[in-house]
Amino acid sequence: MKANIIIRLKKNILDPQGKAVHHALSDMQFGDVEEVRIGRFVEMVFNHNNREQAEEETRKICDKLLANPIMEVYDYTIED
Amino acid sequence: MKANIIIRLKKNILDPQGKAVHHALSDMQFGDVEEVRIGRFVEMVFNHNNREQAEEETRKICDKLLANPIMEVYDYTIED
């Protein structure tokens, strides 16, 4: 199984990296862009085909290692 | 419109950050994980509702600023 995880900053947390990209886009004449927020994308490949187990492990790994629960939220999908 | 962009390293490019996470997971007894690859996730909000224009701008912005075409590939979805 494979997990695709998206980790993003909570809405109320300032994102200086996103602000910097937004600023660069304004300089490059992409004035249509109103806001940019930057997060992380993590792919994890499991050595088994048990979807439930992959989901449970993905949640545990996000909670314990990948995401900072104070500042971040995560979503994931599991695929074969 | 809003663009959700995933940028990942090409398959043949070494990912030291992913290796470090994989190593940490082994230490934490998550031995079921075979491979970890880390990428970036970018959300861009446009100040208009023209889907075609948003797609075109997203591609241009990825090509010119967000992704390194030598080492990275990107995918995106556009939503209302």
Descriptive terms for the model:
homodimer, 80 residues, alpha+beta, Mth169, Chain: A, three-stranded antiparallel beta sheet, 2 helices, elongated
In a few lines, what is going on in this structure?
Two copies of one chain form a homodimer. The first copy, chain A, is 35% helix and 38% strand.
- What's the CATH H-level homologous superfamily of chain A? Phosphoribosylformylglycinamidine synthase subunit PurS
Uncertain stretches of 5 or more adjacent residues of chain A? none
Average pLDDT score of chain A? 97
Oligomer: homodimer
Largest sheet of chain A: 3 strands, antiparallel
Helical element count of chain A?
2
Structural class estimated from helices and strands of chain A: alpha+beta
Q: What portion of residues of chain A is helical?
A: 25-40%
Task: Describe the protein in words.
The structure is a homodimer of 80-residue chains. Chain A contains 2 helices and 3 strands; from the N terminus they run E-H-E-H-E. The first copy, chain A, is 35% helix and 38% strand. The first copy, chain A, is elongated. Chain A has 80 residues and is of the alpha+beta class. Chain A has helices spanning 16-27, 51-66, and strands at 2-9, 33-46, 72-79. Chains A and B meet through strand 1, helix 1, strand 2 and helix 2 of A and strand 1, helix 1, strand 2 and helix 2 of B. Strand 2 of chain A pairs antiparallel with strand 2 of chain B, so a sheet runs across the interface.
